[in-house]
């Protein structure tokens, strides 16, 4: 009998479809809580990858620390589970040493915007040719539900028992301002939109950044009485403006501290795309993709719509 458990025969993890060949079956069962949005995005990511690649031998995943970062452990590819906040630094080194690889960074809002915020800014500025997916569940899930820079005003967390008194961050706007040449936002609620922009991000030459609104049912959901995983998905739907999304027109809903917090209204889909030399090109590193393959600066209005 094989030492590796075949989860297709397990009653606990009924995984079907072509994505299952991209899973590390020996790592099952996974550690995500029921309803966690990160699992939805892992599934959507594997579905895109399974369409594009027969094997992931030339795809490397790099992650920091957090439940979001942990999902790379379930992907049967080269994976680097690094230190908290530092996946983009490791990914930069890897990409410069092995420019022919497709490098995908998975990070969380704590990992990529708190301790790793500086690294995100500079990776975007350098326009290194990799794809960064930031799973934003508006909280630190893995460590017990502390407030993150993305926690909305008024939200209850273990470190804000009276309601959060600080404004939250717009990760997509930050990445664009720092120099990312591809910026998109998606939600676990509409994982097909994520799949679409994830494919475009992989095709884009330069630093591509996707913020994905995800759900931490265990801490953010429970503490703020957002209900179970399905209820939380519906709350994403309720607050989603699906048309005419634009980084410069971000509608905000500011809850009153100590009232029931309201989830932010955020534009989704492709938000920004442009083209300029990558870090590999400015350094003269051979073997990577050419930014000339990308179209010059443009802003695709139609693609911002996601319905
Ligand atoms: C240097 C360092 N500081 C703090 C921690 C503790 N820590 C681990 S994960 C985490 C936060 C994770 O939050 P996020 O990135 O949002 O991921 P989530 O679990 O919510 O998906 C923290 C503070 C650590 N592992 N290393
Ligand atoms: S603690 Fe939150 S983020 Fe972590 S697995 Fe559970 S629901 Fe997901």
Question: Remind me, CATH topology?
Answer: Rossmann fold
Provide the residue-averaged pLDDT.
85
- The residue ranges in which pLDDT falls below 50 over 5 or more consecutive positions are 1-13, 240-258, 296-307
Bound molecules: thiamine diphosphate, iron/sulfur cluster
Reported CATH architecture:
3-Layer(aba) Sandwich
Fraction of residues in helix = 25-40%
For the CA atoms, what is the radius of gyration?
19 Å
Question: What's the helix and strand layout?
Answer:
Layout: H1 37-52, E1 59-63, H2 67-70, E2 78-81, H3 87-97, E3 102-108, H4 109-115, H5 117-126, E4 131-136, H6 171-178, E5 182-187, H7 191-203, E6 208-213, H8 217-223, H9 229-238, E7 269-273, H10 279-283
Parallel strand pairs: 1-2, 1-3, 3-4, 4-6, 5-6
Antiparallel strand pairs: 5-7
Helix pairs in contact: 1-7, 4-5, 5-6
What does this structure look like?
- The protein is α/β, with parallel strands linked by helices.
- The chain has one domain (16-306): Rossmann fold (3-Layer(aba) Sandwich), CATH 3.40.50.
- It has helices at residues 37-52, 67-70, 87-97, 109-115, 117-126, 171-178, 191-203, 217-223, 229-238, 279-283, and strands at residues 59-63, 78-81, 102-108, 131-136, 182-187, 208-213, 269-273.
- It has a 7-stranded mixed sheet, sandwiched between helices.
- It is globular, with a radius of gyration of 19 Å.
- It binds thiamine diphosphate and iron/sulfur cluster (SF4).
- Thiamine diphosphate binds at residues 65-68, 84, 108-111, 135, 137, 139-143, 148, 216.
């Amino acid at each position: 009998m094989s030492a590796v458990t075949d989860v297709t025969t397990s009653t606990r993890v009924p995984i079907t479809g072509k994505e299952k060949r991209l899973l590390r079956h020996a790592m099952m069962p996974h550690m995500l809580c029921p309803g966690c949005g990160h699992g939805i995005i892992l599934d959507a990511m594997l579905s895109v990858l399974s369409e594009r690649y027969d094997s992931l031998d030339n795809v490397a995943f790099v992650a920091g620390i957090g439940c979001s970062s942990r999902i790379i452990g379930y992907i049967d590819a080269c994976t680097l589970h690094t230190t908290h906040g530092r996946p983009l630094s490791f990914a930069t080194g890897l990409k410069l040493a092995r420019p022919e690889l497709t490098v995908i960074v998975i990070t969380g809002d704590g990992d990529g915007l708190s301790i790793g915020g500086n690294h995100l800014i500079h990776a975007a500025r350098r326009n290194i040719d990799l794809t960064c997916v930031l799973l934003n569940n508006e909280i630190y899930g893995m460590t017990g539900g502390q407030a993150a820079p993305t926690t909305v005003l008024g939200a209850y967390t273990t470190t804000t028992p009276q309601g959060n008194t600080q404004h939250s961050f717009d990760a997509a706007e930050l990445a664009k301002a720092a120099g990312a040449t591809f910026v998109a936002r998606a939600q676990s609620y509409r994982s097909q939109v994520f799949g679409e922009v994830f494919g475009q991000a992989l095709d884009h030459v330069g630093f591509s950044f996707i913020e994905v609104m995800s759900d931490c049912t265990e801490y953010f959901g429970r503490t703020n009485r957002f209900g179970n995983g399905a209820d939380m998905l519906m709350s994403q739907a309720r607050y989603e403006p699906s048309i005419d999304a634009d980084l410069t027109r971000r509608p905000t809903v500011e809850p009153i501290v100590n009232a029931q917090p309201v989830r932010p209204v955020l534009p989704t889909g492709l938000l920004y795309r442009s083209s300029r030399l990558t870090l590999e090109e400015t350094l003269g590193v051979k073997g990577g993709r050419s930014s000339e393959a990308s179209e010059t600066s443009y802003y695709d209005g139609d693609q911002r719509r996601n319905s």
